[in-house]
Write a structure and sequence with these properties.
The complex is a heterotrimer of chains A (93), B (157) and C (127). Chain A is mainly alpha-helical. In chain A, 82% of the residues lie in helices and 0% in strands. In chain A, helix 1 runs antiparallel to helix 2 and helix 2 runs antiparallel to helix 3. Chain B has 2 domains: 40 residues, no CATH class; 73 residues, Alpha-Beta Plaits. Chain B has a 3-stranded antiparallel sheet. The radius of gyration of chain B is 20 Å and the shape is elongated. Chain B starts with a helix and ends with a helix. The chains are: A mainly alpha (93), B mainly alpha (157), C mainly alpha (127). At the A-C interface, helix 1, helix 2 and helix 3 of A face helix 1, helix 2 and helix 3 of C. Strand 1 of chain B pairs parallel with strand 1 of chain C, so a sheet runs across the interface.
Chain lengths: 93, 157, 127
């Protein structure tokens, strides 16, 4: 019962967080800002997976969270490389 | 390093003797192994330094977690109040850590402690550039970073 | 019962810190201050939620995975922040107008991608 309420509340908080991160992702204003927002979206998804695993008992999803954290990190590094060593300097919009 | 291997080995023997691999057994085995090493091999320098390091590492762990929570509370405070109180700035802090691993750990921990975010290390590895949220008292900020670096180096060397 | 309560508190505070991180990303004035919010609050938020998972199941395989994920996030989040911050600084993302000091200014070598440790006029003899 307690867990039911707590997980629902956690879902609500995480969803609100997703909305704010998404606003930053759309607004920019520069590409690094968007990359930061994307990284936050990835860690929010890790949080979502954690809550879901707790509610459903499907522990294999923890592996998904691990891989997601890994790929998000690699994506951030790749974006940083791309920004530093070439590519367009200003955002095109 | 050899002492840590021995400690793990003793813990595994303990687990094998109990015949059941559980987290509780492993933790108890580690503690018992540590006590055995601390008592039986206290004359050998490699083991003596290990015995001294473990309590320091545990204290460091708790200290770090406290700092992490404190930093989150300050971030939460910043986010939820008006941003005008911030005095952000980028400062250069001289580094004592020289090896790559040490610099990595120091820089990571700086990022996770309150109000500071490590940006870059100079190419000659002498200076760490740090973004600080409240740069009202620069000497105080540098002092706390030096304190953190000292704690890390104490543990690593 | 007590454990359920503890897990529930961990879940809600973790999700709350993640919301703080998202609010920070939304409200903070420039790239570097935004990264302050995501690295710290993101790590602690995910860590608290996963700690709740570990306590709830109290099982070796779950605990090992949780420790791996949290350790990995703690290790990578600051490194990602460093890489993005450096890239952002390099391509000239403007700092907030309230920034009172910038010792990094002019110390990057645009062509060599190196960073000097002293004032800009000193690094010529070092290279």
């Amino acid at each position: 019962m307690i867990l039911q309420i707590a997980s629902t509340l956690a879902y609500i908080l995480l969803s609100a967080a997703l909305i704010f991160a998404f606003i930053r992702l759309v607004e920019g204003p520069s590409l690094p800002d968007r990359v930061v927002a994307l990284e936050l979206l990835a860690s929010l998804t890790v949080g979502f997976i954690g809550v879901y695993v707790l509610v459903s008992g499907a522990t294999p999803f923890l592996d998904v969270a691990m891989v997601l954290a890994l790929t998000a990190f690699l994506a951030a590094i790749a974006f940083a490389r791309y920004l530093e060593k070439g590519g367009h300097r200003e955002d095109d919009d | 390093m050899i002492a840590l291997t021995w400690n793990l080995l003793l813990a595994l023997i303990w687990v094998a003797l109990w015949g059941e691999f559980t987290a509780a057994n492993l933790v108890v085995g580690l503690i018992v192994g540590y006590l055995v090493l601390a008592f039986a091999l206290r004359d050998m320098p490699a083991f003596a330094s290990y015995v001294a390091k473990v309590p320091r590492a545990i204290r460091f762990f708790f200290w770090f977690n406290r700092e992490l929570i404190r930093s989150n509370l300050t971030v939460a405070y910043d986010v939820l109040t008006k941003t005008h109180y911030m005095r952000p700035g980028v400062i250069a802090v001289p580094l004592e850590a020289s090896r790559d691993g040490e610099i990595t750990i120091v820089a990571n921990l700086i990022s996770l402690t309150p109000g500071t975010l490590s940006l870059d290390v100079s190419s000659d590895r002498k200076v760490l550039y740090i973004h600080v949220m409240y740069l009202t008292d620069e000497a105080e900020v540098v002092r706390s970073i030096k304190d953190l670096e000292r704690r890390v180096l104490e543990l690593m060397r | 019962m007590m454990i359920d309560l503890l897990v529930g508190v961990l879940l809600i505070t973790g999700a709350g810190f993640m919301l703080v991180a998202a609010l920070g990303v939304w409200r903070m004035p420039d790239l570097l201050t935004r990264m302050h919010a995501t690295t710290k609050a993101g790590v602690l938020g995910a860590g608290l939620i996963l700690l709740g998972v570990a306590i709830h199941f109290f099982d070796t395989t779950v605990t090992v995975r949780v420790v791996a994920i949290v350790g990995f996030v703690m290790l990578t989040a600051p490194i990602a922040a460093h890489a993005i911050g450096r890239a952002g600084y390099f391509i000239g993302v403007p700092l907030w107008e309230g920034t009172i000091k910038d010792e990094l200014k002019g110390r990057y070598d645009e062509a060599q991608h190196t960073l000097s440790s002293g004032p800009a006029d000193q690094d010529k003899d070092a290279s």
